[in-house]
Specification:
mainly alpha
């Protein structure tokens, strides 16, 4: 039986049921959060680390959770912030002769698998060329199918700004695919 958000929070805040609450939270949200993080980070091992950091941060800060949003929205925001921090670390650590786009494209290609679909690789390459805000909004709308109102709470942006960012991102992705599909495949 799937527990409700209120029940999970209650378990996490009571000392005798913390472990049960943590397990329930992870069971329910682990997969969705992993794939959100994975689309931002690309590398499986690093995405797993960020996911673990997300749950640790949620556990440590559960007392700050206000029931004015869904638990998933709160966790999603933590995961997004953790992923952005990881991306910033990766960018600082990358070799000086390797620019960010080239690095991310290689990560996508390395993690696509031998029988990966070429169009999915191209889509990931296109997404990696987007500015950070557009990339976040695009991933949340395209892959997670989140409503703008929920994305607004997660990213603390107005719905109008989000719609504009998504529109520009979508146009850039489409143009990238049109420009590069025949060249690469």
């Amino acid at each position: 039986m799937k527990l409700k958000d209120e029940e999970i929070v209650k378990l996490l805040t009571a000392p005798q049921t913390v472990e049960k609450g943590l397990r329930a939270m992870m069971d329910i949200y682990q997969s969705r959060l992993y794939w959100h993080i994975r689309r931002l980070i690309v590398d499986h091992d690093q995405a797993q680390d960020v996911l673990q950091d997300t749950f640790i941060k949620a556990y440590q800060n559960i007392h700050q959770f206000k029931n004015d949003s869904k638990l998933y929205t709160w966790l999603y925001r933590i995961a997004t912030n953790e992923a952005l921090q990881q991306l910033n670390k990766m960018n600082r650590m990358k070799k000086t002769d390797e620019d960010a786009e080239y690095y991310m494209q290689n990560l996508v290609a390395d993690n696509a698998g031998k029988d990966g679909e070429e169009i999915m690789i191209l889509l990931q390459k296109a997404i990696q060329t987007l500015p950070e805000k557009q990339k976040l909004v695009f991933n949340m709308r395209y892959y997670d199918d989140l409503p703008y109102e929920e994305i607004s709470k997660i990213l603390d942006m107005s719905v109008g700004t989000l719609k504009t960012n998504y529109h520009y991102a979508k146009d850039k992705v489409e143009q990238y695919i049109k420009d590069n599909y025949s060249e690469e495949f």
